[in-house]
Model the fold of this input.
Amino acid sequence: MPEIITLGETMFCIAPKTTGMLRYMKEYEAHIAGAESNFAIGVSKMGHSSGWVSRLGTDEIGKFILNSVRAEGVDTSQVEFDEEFRTGLMVKQSKMNGETSVFYYRDNSAASHLERLFLHREYFEGARLIHLTGVTPVLSQSCEGKIWELFDLAEELHIPVSFDPNIRRKLWKGRDYSDMLREMMQRASIVCLGEEEAEILLGTKEPGKVLHSLFVCSGMKYAALKQGKKGAFISDGRQMIKINSYPCRCVEPVGAGDAFDAAFVCGILEQKPLEVCGEMAAVAGAMATESHGDTEGVPSREMMEDILGNENIVYR
Done:
């Protein structure tokens, strides 16, 4: 069974080949998009076994998603196909100034009906970590219920949970899910969040205050405050370490946070020094931005070790 398991929706993503308003675009590329599958792929690239649990429609784009995730070495044996509801869709728009907009077509998708998904206890029993995000529970009431069910199962099986609130305001649709996300963070052993999310959920983005708030009155073991180009701050509750950003040529920022999370938790599971865990995360997050897709730029284990060892990679 996989070491690290995650659950959430992945969509078929259409992205134009050039920058500009979608109304003028003629040529597009197909990708997949989903915070949890991004994470699972990142874990697989780091040399750890990962599993992605979800639901897809029986349509061709659902099969494209399954093939794409499975091709990256992720276990998809717990993905269910739904004959009634379709696979979710996302369209990207990249403007000249580097800003990326997304348009969701995921209402009533197969993955929004997680009440139909059965969590097989034996599949999770051997896991070392379960990873969840704040994207899934805001999709529908049944999705929220399934995430709480998985939190309870993880607690029952004594499996630590890593959590990224991954706030997507478009999915909130005018509602405020802050209390729910704060409660989920309190139940996690590892939390990774961005500055804007910290501002929304904790009322501050000052690193010391954010990390103090996360460790107070919780069973948290590790936390990371992601600051984009400025790097990150990480902590184990005893020390706070500043992690510098890794130099990169950013093409598309979407997916960087998921790659950061994957490398960070892999480093923790390998019992590497905390600073090394942060450096791994910074490298993975930066390199993920160097491609148009969410996961294509995420480094392999070999690339990661070469970078951390400051070795020159010979490509030809």
Remarks:
- The radius of gyration is 18 Å.
